Amino acid sequence: MTGPTQKDLPLVSVIVPVFNNGRFIGPALESLFRQTYPEERREIIVVDDGSTDNTPEVLKKYGQDIFHIRQEHRGVAGARNAGISRARGEFITFLDSDDLWYEERLQRVVERFTESPLAGMVYHPLELIDSEGVTIEKNFYAAFGYKEGISGWVANEVASGKIFCGGSSFAFRRDIVDLISPSPEDVRRGEDYYMTVISSCYAPAEYIPHILGKYRLHSGNLTMSEGLDDRITLAARNKDFAHTRQKVMEKISNLHNAHTNTPDLNLLRRLQAKEMIFFHVLTGERSRAIKQIPALFKGSPALEELLRGVEVSVMALFIPAGLYPLMVSAYRLLKGLKILTL
Asked: Which of 3, 61, 195, 314 lies in the 20 to 30 Å Cα band around 78?
């Protein structure tokens, strides 16, 4: 008996949203062309989301090797929606335009989906590199205290942030993507979070215990940037994530399928309250921040979360807004040294 031929392998759609990332899009695409998964069974859809730098010129070099969509700027969610509408694959995955994949990444993802036919999402850890490609941490997950090795129904773990699902680390079955999409295009930050939480409501996830790509940390990152953020940036980030939590809760509230496994809504409300507290303090509205404190304790938070609520309450009441950027930087450093965990 002969084994499966290339024609029997599933088609994989790789969607690459890009916006003003001419510096990094070339290496990202080159990492796709080096994949061990057969070229005939993958399609590369690059969505240029209205770039005004040299991105269009860089993309022209790749000609027929990519399917190129150019659109007015709509944000990450809008770019992904456009790519999904064109995708033909049985599996859909995303590569951020500043990240890289190891050569075996697609092959291992397809193998895990094949081994686990009930899985809706597959994810894996990433290496952390700087803007020049130099390794900062070999395993981003382990270095910053994220949980590893968790498979199954993981909605609560993803919603709480215990599992990090960055855009270049996850892949979906097409039927799951159809249930998620289109993503709300007013989600500016946290599109990865939105997609992975909702996917986890519909189907189990499978973890691949191998580092299969590189997450690039640089000043242009939307969610996690190198260097010290200023108050305005931190305030915008917290407000955007609070909005994303709201969109997740709205989507979950409309899930009526008996087979879904949704996260605790009170957990999401507590996280949203924390983000709005930071936003109000950073924008000089401490009285509004204080009014949000009771929401930190809504429902029945576990001890660890209860202590975090007390900590955030103290910050809201007493810590000067000017110290917040330094505190965030110190918190990241301590997590990287494994003194703190999520």
From this structure: 61
